[in-house]
Design goal:
Helix content: 40-55%
Number of strands: 14
Largest sheet: 5 strands, antiparallel
Distance between the termini: 74 Å
Length: 644
């Protein structure tokens, strides 16, 4: 017993010490983007991460690979420069070179692998920014400069070779402008057998060329390229290999304004090929929605008009004999559903997520949330979700009281945990997998603590506030246009196959999904690739179209359900409307296996785990939207007919 207590104490001590080290370890001060430089001012390169190109979530610290952490001094650079030029410098050239070195003096005071302070969104996105030893100065070209000389042993060579075979890329930043490049390349590799001894070769790219564009006194564009002419063969890992890491810098004038610096990435290979494709997809979706809504409107109006005329012309003496279809169940249609707490919590959470999503897209469209800043969308969604919890709690509690509910506190607690609890379980799983793999995708303790504090100190109090406001000030009358009978009417069991619940679910999920199918590809490529999605106007339009078509489909299917005298429409309408979320999750499998090169336990855990949460969110949003429109529809049609 005593031994186990000591073991537990040691375990908790290690956890606390690790957490304290993560929280209180000194970090390098972040340099704000948009610096206005004078000539020869220092320019800092920030390194971020490395990882397989096809697995964008599987990322590791930049210095998990044996890259240089310190800069070579001037004497080492001069010696290496002479070797690079392969000649001894003549006297005139020596004097010219000395003048050049004085102008670009190597200070050697920059140390790599020091952590940078990060924003919340960057930490959530898996960034782990660190300092680098590269010495750059504004508007000073560098033809060639030694970074460091090192001899790679077997362990280092195995790391680099494995990284190159897994198609590793690296990411760096200058002025928050991302730069990407590959660690190395493989030549003469067999497509089936892979590496063949004596035939294929693995090459490391030790030289980086930085090309920086400036507009007046600000850096507005940045790219990095690797030079294949300076590659180093590391095929044989058993032989220590000397490597000379180096870099060069080229500046050029660029007329791109600083505020528009991120638009250049829209033309890169990491982004969609053309803007017109998005407009074609959205026009296609709009035409589909227009035709669908027009068709449903015409059909429903004609049918309802005939129903109203028939019901209004029937006198009281023959009413009971002539009743059929949806009019027959007027005494049961407003019978409240089973599991009212769960239903009300689902509706309230769906409304909350819808409002938070619309606010996020609106803020991104107006530029109040930077769409090009790494992780800003994720951080914005976390903050907006916490701030809109009042709305979710108010909607769910008000509906619960309208259903004659008594335990409103339970409803508030269900609303508070309906979305965060599944998200937390998924997060714990994927974060554990990331920690096991040593990936930067694992959130640090400080970020987890920050998010938990925001939820505990902001979201929960606002949720309780919303419930209290609904209890004391909201209208608790349901205002049903018909009276509900004490005994529920029997529901017909013999229905045609095309009017069964399963067919309705497929139709209600497929038609809205077809309206966003094309745009969904670009969204997936941005979420699970290296693209930067910036067309939030189109995305907002597509989201509104999705809500509209889901509402119309829900109303149409609800009419057919009521016409077959099935009064259990509450849950069925919510589930039918939310089925598009299930189609989105099904599409994620198609995208993973047929449209991406993702693989591995880590990437698969993140992809399918978080896509299940995204799909669940769409299920709640579309379900609540479809339910509210269906409720208005039901109240409207039953308020227009004569009922006993």
């Amino acid at each position: 017993m005593r031994a186990s207590s000591i073991l537990s104490l040691l375990l908790w001590s290690s956890v606390i010490s690790t957490a304290s080290a993560g929280l209180f370890k000194k970090k390098h001060r972040r340099q704000k983007a948009g610096t206005k430089y004078a000539q020869h001012d220092e320019v800092h390169i920030v390194v971020n991460k490395v990882g397989p190109f096809n697995n964008p979530t599987e990322t590791y610290r930049y210095y998990s690979l044996p890259f240089c952490r310190t800069h070579a001094d001037e004497s080492a650079h001069k010696e290496a420069y002479e070797e690079e030029r392969n000649i001894a410098l003549a006297e005139e050239e020596e004097e010219e070179e000395a003048s050049y070195l004085r102008k670009l003096e190597i200070k050697g005071n920059r140390i790599g692998a020091e952590r940078h302070k990060q924003r919340l969104g960057e930490s959530i996105a898996g960034d782990r920014r660190e300092t680098s030893p590269y010495e750059l100065s504004f508007q000073d070209d560098i033809e060639w400069r030694l970074l460091c000389k090192t001899t790679l042993d077997k362990r280092d060579l195995i790391k680099l070779k494995e990284a190159i075979h897994n198609n590793y890329f690296f990411e760096m930043f200058i002025e928050d402008l991302p730069m990407w490049g590959y660690v190395g390349d493989i030549e003469d590799e067999d497509e089936i057998l892979g590496e063949v001894e004596g035939q294929s070769h693995t090459y490391l790219f030790p030289h980086l060329h930085f090309r920086l564009g400036y507009n007046k006194n600000q850096i507005v564009s940045a790219t990095v390229t690797t030079e294949r002419d300076r590659k180093v063969d590391i095929t044989n890992v058993n032989k220590p290999t000397p490597v000379q890491f180096s870099y060069s810098v080229e500046y050029f004038e660029d007329d791109l304004p600083w505020r528009m610096r991120m638009t250049r990435y829209a033309d890169s290979r990491f982004l969609p090929g053309s803007f017109e494709i998005h407009w074609l997809s959205i026009i296609n979706s709009f035409v589909l929605v227009l035709l669908l809504t027009a068709f449903l409107t015409i059909i429903l109006m004609r049918v309802l008009k005939n129903d109203f005329s028939r019901y209004m012309e029937i006198d009281d003496s023959t009413m009971e004999e002539e009743e059929s279809g949806w009019k027959l169940i007027h005494g049961d249609v407003f019978r409240f559903p089973e599991y009212p707490v769960l239903f009300c919590a689902s509706v309230g959470t769906g409304v909350q997520l819808t409002i938070a999503t619309l606010l996020l897209l609106g803020l991104a469209l107006t530029g109040m949330i930077s769409t090009t800043r790494r992780g800003s969308i994720l951080a914005g969604m976390v903050i907006l979700y916490c701030l809109t919890t009042t709305v979710g709690a108010y909607i769910s509690t008000r509906l619960y009281f309208q259903m004659n509910g008594k335990n409103w506190v339970r409803c508030v607690l269900f609303t508070a945990g309906l979305f965060p609890v599944p998200t937390s379980f998924v997060f714990m799983w994927v974060n554990t997998v990331a920690l096991f793999h040593g990936s930067t995708s694992a959130l640090p303790f400080s970020t987890i603590f920050t998010i938990a504090a925001i939820f505990a100190l902001v979201a929960l109090p606002l949720t309780v506030l919303g419930g209290i406001v609904a209890k004391n000030y909201a209208n608790h009358d349901f205002n049903a246009p018909t009276r509900t009978t004490k005994v529920a009417r029997e529901i017909p069991t013999e229905v045609p196959w095309y009017r069964t619940r399963f067919v309705q679910m497929v139709i209600s999920g497929f038609l809205p999904f077809s309206a966003i199918y094309i745009e969904l590809h670009y969204i997936f490529a941005s979420m699970w690739g290296h693209q930067i999605y910036t067309l939030f106007g189109i995305l907002l339009f597509a989201f509104v179209l999705l809500l509209v078509v889901t509402s119309f489909i829900s109303v149409a299917l609800l009419y057919f359900q009521l016409a077959k005298e099935d009064h259990r429409w509450w849950w069925s309408t919510f589930i039918n409307a939310g089925m598009t979320g299930l189609f989105i999750y099904a599409y994620s499998f198609f995208y993973y296996f047929h449209r991406s090169g993702m693989s591995g336990m880590l990437q698969s855990s993140f992809y399918f785990g978080y896509m299940s949460i995204v799909s669940f969110g769409f299920f709640l949003m579309l379900g609540s939207c479809g339910f509210h429109f269906s409720l208005l529809f039901v109240k409207h049609i039953y308020s227009r007919v004569k009922c006993d």
